[in-house]
């Protein structure tokens, strides 16, 4: 999945400002002796119109950072903004509306509703919100993602890659200010994963979207404009125009990396980069995941 940074244009950095921002962002889980400091006073700017990857060893705080930036989790201290809106301190109802109207989500598990076809899944968040999609934009997204002839198919009738493309279209449908993608290629074989990364890249380059992607895969991170490296709840490094090799090298030298259940995190990264193509993409989205989706796009 290695793509030299030079192969793609750098997203429109700085020109359009900051899509999300955090200052002194601190998140602690638990209390007393069992407190875990998942994020330790993080300052970060997520540039608008760029593709940002977040990497780091298991337990370094990647998901927590994404959840706090997306208003899916509360913070212990510090401030978070989406564009000019400070989201820390918003009430649940306001946060739900902000997520629904201004943020797109992609998850490793696709989170599609099994009983709805692709077209219905794509517009579900907007349907729930009572919003009418901009048909011209929607057509552009559907064609860019190559989903035109799959719109009537249900998730079980689609490959894993196609399901993730539907999830990508769903995230793009309302033209959100920022798309958060949590391991979007984690359940895909490397060919389908490459495709999805290519579409995220196009969403940034051709459609002007802003994307933040959490990944363990240096090959996936190489599709981004900039990689933020987390270690022990802090941003410890940043890499512009990453290549898979440079990211892998950086990960190897990580200090404070914590072992995962399956082995050291660096080994995971190496495995993913070296993994051979496989055609056995997992199919089907679980009902639990689908219910999570409904929660995420909750009505107000
Ligand atoms: N709900 C929770 N309760 C207690 N501790 C938590 C909770 N969620 C996360 N943590 C802890 O916070 C730290 C950061 O977790 P986080 O999931 O953000 O890491 P990560 O970098 O995304 O990890 P991974 O790569 O394994 O998904 C970890 O030590 C984790 O155990």
Automatic annotation (TrEMBL):
Which cellular component appears as one GO term in the record? membrane protein complex
Parts of the chain that traverse the membrane = none
List the keywords (alphabetical): ATP-binding, Nucleotide-binding, Transport
Q: What is this protein called?
A: ABC transporter ATP-binding protein
Instruction: Provide the ABC transporter domain boundaries.
Output: 20-257
The scientific name of the source species is Streptomyces olivochromogenes
PROSITE patterns for this protein:
ABC_TRANSPORTER_2
GO molecular-function annotation terms? Answer: ATP binding; ATP hydrolysis activity; transmembrane transporter activity
Which Pfam family, giving just one, matches this sequence? ABC_tran
């Amino acid at each position: 999945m290695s793509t030299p940074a030079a192969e793609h244009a750098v997203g429109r950095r700085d020109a359009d400002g900051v899509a999300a921002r955090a200052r002194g962002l601190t998140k602690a889980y638990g209390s007393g002796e069992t407190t875990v400091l998942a994020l330790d006073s993080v300052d970060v700017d997520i540039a608008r119109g760029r593709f940002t990857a977040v990497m780091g060893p298991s337990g370094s705080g990647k998901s927590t950072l994404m959840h706090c930036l997306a208003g899916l989790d509360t913070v212990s201290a510090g401030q978070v903004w989406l564009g000019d809106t400070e989201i820390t301190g918003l009430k649940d109802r306001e946060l739900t509306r902000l997520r629904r109207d201004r943020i797109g989500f992609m998850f490793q598990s696709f989170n599609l509703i099994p009983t709805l076809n692709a077209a219905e899944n794509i517009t579900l968040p907007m349907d729930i919100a009572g919003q009418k999609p901009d048909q011209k934009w929607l057509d552009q997204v559907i064609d860019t993602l190559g989903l035109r002839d799959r719109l009537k198919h249900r998730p079980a009738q689609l490959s894993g890659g196609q399901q993730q493309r539907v999830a990508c279209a769903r995230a793009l449908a309302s033209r959100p200010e920022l798309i958060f993608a949590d391991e979007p290629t984690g359940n895909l074989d490397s060919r389908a994963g490459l495709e999805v990364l290519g579409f995220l890249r196009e969403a940034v380059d051709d459609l002007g979207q802003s994307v933040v992607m959490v990944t363990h895969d240096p090959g996936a991170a190489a599709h981004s404009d900039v990689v933020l490296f987390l270690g022990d709840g802090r941003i410890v490094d940043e890499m512009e125009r990453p290549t898979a090799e440079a990211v892998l090298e950086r990960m190897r030298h990580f200090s404070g990396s914590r072992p995962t259940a399956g082995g050291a995190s660096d080994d995971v990264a190496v495995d993913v980069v070296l993994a051979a193509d496989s055609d056995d993409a997992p199919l089907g989205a679980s009902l639990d995941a689908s219910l999570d989706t409904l929660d995420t796009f909750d009505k107000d």
